[in-house]
Amino acid sequence: MALLEESFQKRAPVAGRFRRSMLLPLGSAVLVIVAWQVLCAMMRIPPILLPPPSAVWRVLQSNYAILLDEALPTATESVLSFVIASALGVALAVSLSFSAWMREALYPNIVMFQLIPKIALAPLFIVWLGVGEKTSTVVAVFIAFFPVVVSSATGLVSTKPETLQLCRSLAASEWQVFRMVRFPYAMPFIFAGMKVGATMTMIGVIVGEFITAQQGLGYIIMFAAGAGETATVLAAIVLLCVIGLALYVVVELAERAVRHWYGGQMPVGTVI
After folding, report:
1. How far is C-alpha 147 from the chain's CA centre?
2. How many other C-beta atoms are found inside a 10 Å radius of the C-beta of residue 23?
3. Is residue 50 within 8 Å of residue 231, measured between CB atoms?
4. What is the distance between the alpha carbons of residues 213 and 217, in angstroms, rounded to a whole number?
5. Shortest CA distance to 121 belongs to which of 93, 91, 142, 96?
6. Which of 33, 144, 153, 166 has a CA positioned 20 to 30 A from the CA of residue 177?
7. pLDDT digits (tens, 9 = 90+) for 79-96
8. DSSP string spanning the chain?
């Protein structure tokens, strides 16, 4: 009986934090939606300027088939862009961590290239790749790539110096140090960069669809905005939020799985 009580006491704070982390965001979102609806009704705001949530919901109900069809290419481009940006970013960060020469040669150029507005490269992408999903995907990869590289590279050089000295005293090889020390220490940084990359991917895909696409939620937003259908624009934005949230949740679940693999707590080092 005492063991059961002790187990319940340990689970209770965890369950309370989980409920709080779920209920507080949902409650605040509901309050915002209710206030939005009341404000539109009391101030008689024209629907073309700001439709109430009820109008957005009616658009979702009446046009869900069309919106879902257009959401599919956007979701596909988002996932593909995120996977490519994450893979390239982590791979380049690993290369930079292994070679000081490569880090000194490439890292400043990566930062300089990031300063270029990606929208300014869109005409070149159109010339090289044409109009369509390829261009949207490339724009999204370029936008999401940089935070993954920077965060991952920071994590890979953030291992505690005393830990590295211990590995060297045990005659561990560079690969063993990387696999058993550097990479686990970098995991929180890598996932932080991937979370930022997930949000940047959605921005990149929509920007690409604004410019080049003939389908997708970005195309729907541009078409509906030109026709003055603000409720349709907001309905498409709602679906974009759902896609982005789903992508973020996948990254969060992957991070929790990795934490569990490493015993529930991934170490975080200090920057050398």
Report:
1. 10
2. 10
3. no
4. 10
5. 142
6. 144
7. 999 999 999 999 999 888
8. -HHHHHHHHHHHHHHHHHHHHHHHHHHHHHHHHHHHHHHHHHHT--TTT---HHHHHHHHHHSHHHHHHHHHHHHHHHHHHHHHHHHHHHHHHHHHHH-HHHHHHHHHHHHHHHTS-HHHHHHHHHHHH-SSHHHHHHHHHHHHHHHHHHHHHHHHT-S-HHHHHHHHHTT--HHHHIIIIIHHHHHHHHHHHHHHHHHHHHHHHHHHHHHT-SSSHHHHHHHHHHTT-HHHHHHHHHHHHHHHHHHHHHHHHHHHHHHHHTTS--------
Q: Residue written as tokens 């929790």?
A: 256
CATH number for the domain whose boundaries are 50-261: 1.10.3720.10
Tens digits of residue pLDDT in 232-241: 999 999 999 9
